[in-house]
Amino acid sequence: MPYKIAFLSKFPPIEGGISSKTYWVTRGLAQRGHEIHVITHDIGAGREYSIKGYSEPPGTDLNIQIHRTHSLPWHIPEDSEHTLSLIDTAIEVIREHKIQVIDSSYLVPYGIAGYFTKLSTQIPHVIRHGGSDLEKFLKQNNLQSLVNLALSDADAVITNRLHANLFEHLTPNLVFQPPYIPDESVFVPRNNLQTRRRLAIIGKINYHWQHKSLKLIAKIMENLVDKFECVIYGQGNGIDSFKESLKQDNLSNFEWSPFVVPWEMPGVLSQLDAIFAFESNLPNPVFSNLVLEAAWMGVGIITDRQDFTDTYRDIFAFNKNQVLVVSPTDPELSAESITRWVKERISSKPDLQPLASFQEFLLLNEAVYADVLNNVSG
Question: Are residues 123 and 15 located together in one domain of the fold?
Answer without folding.
Answer: yes
